[in-house]
Amino acid sequence: MTAHTFSFFKFSDGNYLSIIIEARKVKSQNYNIFTGILHTYPIMYIAVDERNTILSRASIYKDQLYMYPVKLSKPENGGLLLADMLHTMNDQTVYPTWYNTLWANCTSTIAYHINQISPGRLPSFSWQFTLGCYAGELALEAALLNTKLPLDQARKKYYITKRSQEVGYVPNYSQLIRQ
Questions:
Q1: DSSP state letter for 169
Q2: Which residues are within 8 A (CB) of 114 and not within 5 positions of it... i.e. 6 or more apart?
Q3: Are 4 and 69 in contact (CB under 8 A)?
Q4: What does the angle CA 111 – CA 113 – CA 114 come to, to the nearest 5 degrees?
Q5: Residue 2: its pLDDT value, please?
Q6: Residue 79 and residue 57 in contact, taking contact as beta carbons nearer than 8 Å
Q7: For 170, which of 72, 103, 127, 130 is 20 to 30 Å away at the CA?
Q8: Radius of gyration in angstroms for the set of CA atoms belonging to the chain, rounded to a whole number
Q9: Backbone angles phi, psi at 62, to 5 degrees
Q10: 3-state DSSP call for residue 64?
């Protein structure tokens, strides 16, 4: 089972930005986890409105989505994390790096950025980085999730696919899916 991990950042005006990290494919390529181990795909950062990220994955692709609240070790770390990701995104235009299914994927790259801000918060490597469907378990173990619920209950509470489909494309989408 595979999964895709991405980050959301809330701004003071109530808007949310999503940062997605993934393999950049050319039109004729399909993603393959095995060729993803080789230098097949450059890594790509995408900054997009949260509503577009979640709604397309929930309504078009029918992905199963969970939105876990994150516990920051310091309040300013959210802004520092976003700045670090945007800096890396900008650097990619000059110094591209390669996606790797095992070592440089969506989950492990987010973990790298977290450790840039809070050194040692996550292990340098975990098998859960490779199998993103276990990222929630790793985040809970590392006290990154702002919940005391066991993972099975947290998954039920923070499951947003159906809510996203019901809410639809409305201006206050981000607030409604969090209710």
A1: S
A2: 81, 121, 122, 144
A3: no
A4: 65
A5: 60
A6: no
A7: 72
A8: 16
A9: 60, 35
A10: coil
Q: CA neighbours within 13 Å on the CB side: how many for 114?
A: 23
Q: Which two tokens stand for residue 91?
A: 């650097």
| 28-38 tens-digit pLDDT | 999 888 999 99
Note whether 95 and 104 are within 8 A (CB): no
CA 26/CA 121 separation, integer angstroms? 35
Beta partners for 48?
18
pLDDT at 64: 92
Contact yes or no for 70/144 (Cβ under 8 A): yes
Report the amino acid identity of residue 30. Answer: N
Q: State the angle between helix axes of 77-92 and 106-117 in degrees (0 to 180), rounded to the nearest 10.
A: 120
Helix (H), strand (E) at residue 156: helix 151-157
Asked if 140 and 151 count as a contact pair (C-beta separation under 8 A), the reply is yes
Report pTM. 0.90
The mean-pLDDT minimum among 82-91, 100-109, 121-130 falls in 121-130
Q: Give the pLDDT mean for 114-119.
A: 94
Residue for token digits 């997009």?
48
In the sheet with 16-23, reading across from the earlier edge strand, the strands are: 6-10, 16-23, 43-49
What is residue 145's DSSP assignment? B
